[in-house]
Description:
Largest interface: A-B, 51 and 48 residues
CATH architecture of the largest domain in chain B: Roll
Radius of gyration of chain B: 27 Å
Radius of gyration of chain A: 23 Å
CATH architecture of chain A: Orthogonal Bundle
CATH topology of chain A: MetI-like fold
Number of strands of chain B: 25
Number of domains of chain A: 1
Structural class of chain B: alpha+beta
Strand order of the largest sheet of chain B: 1-10-9-8
Number of strands of chain A: 0
Helix content of chain B: 25-40%
Oligomer: heterodimer
Order of helices and strands of chain A: HHHHHHHHHHHHHH
Strand content of chain A: under 5%
CATH topology of the largest domain in chain B: Dipeptide-binding Protein, domain 3
CATH superfamily of the largest domain in chain B: Dipeptide-binding Protein, Domain 3
Shape of chain B: globular
Number of helices of chain B: 17
Structural class of chain A: mainly alpha
Distance between the termini of chain B: 74 Å
Shape of chain A: elongated
CATH superfamily of chain A: MetI-like
Distance between the termini of chain A: 51 Å
Largest sheet of chain A: none
Amino acid sequence: MSAVLQPGRLPGDGPSAEPADGVAAGGPRLAVRRFVRNRLAVVGLAVVVLFFLFCFVGPLLYSTDQIHTTLTQVNLSPSGSHLLGTDAVGHDELGRLMYGGKVSLVVGLAAGILATVIGTLWGAAAGYAGGWIDAVMMRVVDAGIAIPALFILLVVSAISTPGVPGLIVILGLVSWLVPARLVRAETLTLKNRDYVHTLRAIGGTHTRAIGRHILPNSVSTIVVAATFQVADAILLVAYVSYLGLGLQPPKTDWGGMLSAGLTATYSGRWWLILPPGLAVILVVCAFNAIGDGLRDAFDVRGRG
Amino acid sequence: MFPVRTAERRRWALVAGAAIAVSSLLAGCNGANGSSSASSGSINYALPANFTPNWILPIGTPAHLNTNNVSIAASLWEPLVAYDGSTGGIGWNKKASIASAADFAPDGKSVTITLGARHWSDGKPITSRDVQFWFNLIKANKAQWAGYSAGKAPDNWTALKVLDDHRFTLTFDRSYNDQWMLANELSQITPLPQHLWDRASASAAVGDTDETPAGAKQVWTFLNSAAKNISKYASDPLWKTVSGPYEVHSFSTAGKVVLAANKKYDGGEKAHIPTVNLLPFTTTDAEENALRSGQVDYGYINATDLDQKASFTGQGYNVKPWTGWAITYMPYNFQNPTMGAVFKQLYARQAVQESIDQDSLSKVIFNGTAVPGYGPIPQAQASDFVSPAQKDNPYPFSTAKAKSLLTAHGWADQGGTMTCVQPGTSASQCGAGVAKGTKFRMQVLSQSGSTVTDNMMSAIQSSLAKTGIGFSIKTAPVNSVLSQTPQCTSGQASCKWQLSFFGTAGSWYFPAFPTGDSLFQSKGGSNFGSYSNPQVDQLITESTTSTSNNAVQQYSAALAKDLPVIWLPEPDYQISVVKNGLGGFAQDSLADFHPAQWQWTGK
Lengths: 304, 603
């Protein structure tokens, strides 16, 4: 049995003559101007850029051995030779912050994008198809949301120990549900616009309707959701690693560093906790701020 | 449409919460300075987290087998032979025993035990009949007894002959090592008050019911039924007649036990502290909080918290690591289809062992709470079982030596990893079954949840890399590690594991006599990696039956040299935190506690 996509119609939905997308309506230049007007968003962007430079360019300027342990230099406090001290197995903590940051940022970014892509495709298909297909697809989403992501991650981690690619896939697969809901809601509105009906009337395919009209007009929702997904994914990586179920040595990430440094809380070794903790908080806040700025930039309602 | 406002607030709240949490962590919580509960009349002892005492009968059943239950029961009913570590070394503590002498026949096939002139708390003498009562119960109900192992006691005890009220002879099915018999079998006997307990029901008259197997089963059922009623432990007259230094004052089903000194005790280990409060805790964190607030006199902390020693000493405590009678190791899977052939080469195992810096691991990673272990006999305590070969470490740490050992056997460094370039069976080749191009890469499935273990694995990975041996780490909860690393044959799907680690608190705890029949004998039930060496099998058998310790020392030397597993540092059983002024005792490495030895010294 094959399903036939049938554009549905919501009661009360009136046809609209043109896309209401902010970018399309006002142009990218206006969107950039509105983004820049949000100071917090600009600061957020600067923070993210700085952290990317810190993690990817920093090791070229401040080279450390993050593969081998040095048991003669453990738990050293910050000094000229180790600007942020060393950890319990003798790794330079500043170098480790860069090394772990690479993983946190790459996994967070990639998993956030993956989750958004999956969620977008699922939500668009469900919203456009309508009827029982929509009902079934969204119940899958509801069921997925009902199971805490952390629980799924713990179970998966107990079964296997993922590397970086595996972690990206796993986090992406547990994080796509919210974007799916957002895009589905957007699609329900867009599919009843006149230009979609016109496309169908002149023989346009469902794929073309979704790919050329509905998704491009949902881009603002998708982009904003993506920034929040990235922030959430970075936090999820930290959660999983904090619980000791993340990457295996010598690899690490900021959550893993926090977990390893936790026992030093009562010992006054602040350099094992404060830097990775602040890094997670700053980057997550920064991505959230960027998301806020993008929402302002795309939001047609606040435009004057 | 941007339906994200609520989610956004929540997200910001989460971020703020995370910031506050991190700040709180950094600020630290030093805990309240409570007043000490220490007084000369009582002591508060913290039981292990998540454990509540639930058995009083000094005969363990599998459902109630816990060392803390055993410790409580031994304070009430003294064992015939207290063979433990309570005196500082593993040995027979005669002061805490009912028996005063054990004379083995020259042929090692029997022993004559002499009882001390001791009395029950109701004034009746402790006699050979009380031992015979225990013997009859165990013989008739061995399948229900937690200490039973086929072929061992009571199967290998052929008869108990009472010579008089204070002497009896136990005969064996063959000749046994005296020390092994004392330490692993006779130490399980506890004289029971036959004049009160030898009956089929609470209303039945006391007689010689135990003298027939059927009667002994009835007595067993009666005693076990009574022991299931925890709320009656303090009031049931059955439990009032004791031989040990304490009696039960109260026994809560929630886990708190209060012991009171037995004023009629006439043994060698009289209680110094009249009231002992044994306190249960749900978590180690809860117990640590109680310690910080001064509610516990004898407690513990996590090994990872050892660097907080100063905060406890500042509160009037001593931090005393409690060493265990255990060994720690990583078994090789000799049946692994990829690496099994490499593991079977002794030179390869030597190279691995020489790449592990146990001294540094013990001092740095374990904060000095572990000692290097080089063989199958625990080394945290001095004993007569350790061979000079094991003690002297046959394979000292040297990655350079390890590397040259591999290159001398047909391996070459290719891109940082040793690779077999000369397959074959001659002395300069890789060895039987090792194919050309085989990379020396191993993966360990390691116990998760311990920072110390994670750090140790990182350090091992690092030093093995210097030799050119790849070592990847996969972690899982300990139960998962044990279930995923079973004994297997190379064709089985379950045989893909290469190395296994489950020894965060020690891999294997021994009874007093550390035999390796279960661990390293070819058919041993806990021989995870399927190690097999007929000479070692022979030595293990001899170590339990030979009348001298020479056999066990030979076994120790053989396995220190043959490396059936990767030997690792032996960590402490517990990091104890003891109130200043509490002394007079040694922490028993068999993981039992002995309240009668505790005393407030006033220092």
